[in-house]
Amino acid sequence: MKGTTCTKIQTLMIILLMVAGSVLPLLQPGTAHAEAASHAVDTARNDTFVESMLEKLDFPGMAVGIVKGDQIIYTKGYGHSGPDGQPVTPQTPFILGSSSKSFTALAIMQLVEQGKIDLNTPVQRYLPEFELEDKEASKTILVRHLLNHSSGISTFHGRTAFTNTASTIDELIHRLKNTPLTEPVGSQYQYSNANYDILGGIIQAVSGESYAEYIQDHVYSPLDMKNSYTSTPEAKKHGLATGYQSIFGFMAPFEQPDNPSMLASAYLISSAEDMSHYLVAQLNGGKFHDISVAATESVAQMHQPTIKDPSTGGEYGMGWEIVHGVVQHAGDVESFHADMKLDGDIGVVVLMNAHDYAVRAFKLGMVADGILEIMHGREPVDDAGSITGTYILIDVISAAVMIMLGVSVFNLIKRKKSFRLTPLRIILFAFCLVLFNAVLPIAVLYGFSHTFAPWSVVFSFLPGLGHLAFVLSILSLVIGAAKLIVLGHNLRLHRMKESGNTM
């Protein structure tokens, strides 16, 4: 009996050790991540798709994070992070662009929970010096209007801060005093960075911390976002990916400037791994593991459709867009692109260290969309079109315009002594002069600087093509002025000749 009992005990101990050996590894974070990923993500299919898109877009690198429920199930880097060829990893920092706005909205809601901010209170209660060109209307702008982009400040005026001439958020807000309202306060959606820059100022005024300190203390640290930064120089010390831009179709590294005045709207920095922590909190009522950064009601309010957004066919909440049931936000700065998407219990983040506003811009979201399709068991769309073919066409047209202007200059310098004038020739000459040397260049010069952004911003967001468009437009105007002088001279000679013949 005693021997049998010992044998049973030994057998039981062996079984317990075997169970422990199977269970304990699952409790280790790294292994649990790998196990979850193997069951929840078709890694081979996902890798094939992302690598295919990286090649088709001709981008240097990107990082991906996927979460399901309260678990991070997949993080991976693709390509390289800069000219030195360092591979992108899930820990590589990227600039988030306008995805930063969701962090600002979260910070506002945290302060709402603490009773320090009321969404239906005028901005001037928290920022007494805040005012726009319309002093009376400025008094009626509420915090809520800023959050859902219905303040009346236009998209264009929100882009002017990309000139990077303000050194702080407070200075940027002070410079808004001559900014006009293009729509009545609260009446219409107009996506504007300025709204979130002002919110950044409110956070500073109410919390007593700088915006950067607040985000670090109340969002990054609680969510264990160890590779996230609020300063470009600081991030560069810790492996910030080098941004790239397309110059006539060729990807070239770009020295990304620091723009602390727009930190709240566009320049927060994070990694795919850290952003996965952030998405877990967004999917789980503000909770990441045992830490809560916001109440469930606050997160739901941020994700709640509030105002129609004609540009997406969806609606805007607070720091988030809601399009066909997907809660999302993209982000773009000079040389980085980001996408965040929440679809049911699935979250996807894609970070890219390049941008191309001329050709690739509308194709970048295909990566995050495709990953969501794979997660739902559907086939992703991977037809990005011909990037090279489009740029060949653009480059040929650009070369043709330069040649035409060059020929015009040559003809002006080597113009014929005798120039026979006829009514038809004069009409055609005048028509071409007005169209090509006045209307078109003025439309380009005025159109870009008054509908898109100031030319200094165009140069930084559209290098090469932006510079060429500006130079060719100026040159065309100068040639037009010279042609007008030549036409006047020839008309005078023509009259003199006719007068001589008459006599």
UniProtKB/TrEMBL annotation:
<dbReference type="InterPro" id="IPR001466">
    <property type="entry name" value="Beta-lactam-related"/>
</dbReference>
<protein>
    <recommendedName>
        <fullName>Beta-lactamase-related domain-containing protein</fullName>
    </recommendedName>
</protein>
<dbReference type="InterPro" id="IPR012338">
    <property type="entry name" value="Beta-lactam/transpept-like"/>
</dbReference>
<keyword id="KW-0732">Signal</keyword>
<keyword id="KW-0812">Transmembrane</keyword>
<dbReference type="InterPro" id="IPR050491">
    <property type="entry name" value="AmpC-like"/>
</dbReference>
<keyword id="KW-1133">Transmembrane helix</keyword>
<feature type="transmembrane region" description="Helical">
    <location>
        <begin position="391"/>
        <end position="413"/>
    </location>
</feature>
<dbReference type="Pfam" id="PF00144">
    <property type="entry name" value="Beta-lactamase"/>
</dbReference>
<feature type="transmembrane region" description="Helical">
    <location>
        <begin position="425"/>
        <end position="448"/>
    </location>
</feature>
<feature type="domain" description="Beta-lactamase-related">
    <location>
        <begin position="48"/>
        <end position="357"/>
    </location>
</feature>
<feature type="signal peptide">
    <location>
        <begin position="1"/>
        <end position="34"/>
    </location>
</feature>
<keyword id="KW-0472">Membrane</keyword>
<feature type="transmembrane region" description="Helical">
    <location>
        <begin position="468"/>
        <end position="487"/>
    </location>
</feature>
